[in-house]
Task: inverse folding
């Protein structure tokens, strides 16, 4: 039986890694599963390193003392850019979440204080409000995906559509509630924290889609109706999506 490492053991590994390979770091934040107490025997270490200056932000995957470590290197300027310009428009801010949930294992100075304030400000602000066009696209995509699921008689195809529908519904419900979204396990965790009832409905629908397709189809229809109702309901008739006028190639020849 594999033993789940303690946080203190992981903290020691991270501290040695920083000391040996990144001695100029001014902050080192352990995030992810170890920061939230959800670690398993094979969980990797998410480590955000802050420097006074980097020529460019970077990410490394390495193994330290037998443990996989995901290292993210930033200074305040690159951290701000990634959070606000790259991540936030998609409704997810994993770097800011690492700082909010994690622990700085180096002596805290002014740079970490600014990073801490910035990450919490981004987290509190929430994601950009969905505009009308974005919301319509989502409603239409969910409506057509549900139709595909309900019409499907092939278990494999149905499960693939159910996975797509789960992600779209969870993400829309979070964004409509003004909450940051996430990917993979983090999507479920954020949805559960935001609305445990919808999270349970979606989870149950996915399980039924895999074990009892007709029941899964009905369950997805129910949870889709619940998620879409507050944002305008299903959308098919009248949906239009013009392409930009410049999307054309010159005639061949």
Result:
């Amino acid at each position: 039986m594999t033993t789940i490492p303690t946080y203190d053991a992981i903290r020691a590994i991270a501290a040695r890694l920083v000391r040996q390979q990144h001695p100029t770091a001014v902050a080192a934040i352990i995030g992810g599963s170890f920061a939230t107490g959800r670690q398993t025997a094979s969980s990797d270490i998410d480590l955000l390193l802050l420097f006074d200056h980097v020529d460019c932000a970077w990410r490394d995957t390495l193994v330290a003392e037998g443990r996989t470590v995901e290292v993210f290197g930033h200074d305040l300027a690159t951290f701000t850019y990634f959070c606000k310009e790259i991540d936030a428009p998609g409704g997810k801010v994993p770097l800011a979440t690492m700082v909010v949930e994690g622990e700085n294992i180096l002596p805290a100075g002014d740079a970490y204080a600014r990073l801490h304030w910035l990450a919490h400000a981004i987290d509190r602000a929430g994601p950009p409000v969905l505009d009308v066009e974005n919301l319509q696209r989502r409603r239409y995509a969910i409506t057509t995906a549900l139709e595909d699921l309900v019409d499907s008689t092939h278990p494999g195809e149905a499960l693939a559509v159910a996975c797509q529908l789960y992600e779209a519904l969870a993400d829309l419900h979070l964004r409509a509630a003004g909450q940051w979204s996430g990917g993979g396990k983090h999507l479920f965790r954020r949805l559960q924290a935001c609305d445990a009832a919808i999270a349970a409905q979606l989870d149950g629908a996915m399980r039924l889609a895999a074990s009892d397709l007709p029941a899964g189809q009905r369950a997805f229809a129910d949870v889709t109706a619940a998620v879409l109702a507050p944002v305008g309901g299903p959308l098919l008739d009248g949906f239009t999506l013009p392409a930009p006028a410049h999307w054309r190639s010159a005639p061949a020849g």
The mean pLDDT is 94. DSSP finds ten helices and five strands in the chain. The chain has two domains: 7-125, 132-231. The two ends are 68 Å apart (CA to CA).
